[in-house]
Specification:
Blueprint lengths: L2 H13 L10 H15 L5 H14 L5 H20 L1
Helix pairs in contact: 2-4, 3-4
Length: about 80
Amino acid sequence: MSSSSNSSSRRNLSDSLAIVKSSFDPQRDFRDSMVEMIVENNIKASKDLEDLLACYLSLNSDEYHDLIIKVFKQIWFDLTHIQLK
């Protein structure tokens, strides 16, 4: 990813809107939301993924932080395996 793409991803991420949502399956909803953000913002660099995680942690209450980190780790693992193929 070029530096201009990195700047573009960060700008798009910061321009995104947070949506308040009630959920019966927060793990699935966080995963769907994170994957959507990664795809929509063409996030590929580790730094951009870390920024995305920081956004989710800052926008959600502490009670969801462990779940958000768990979902994030799974997505990172999945992305790593996709890139290795």
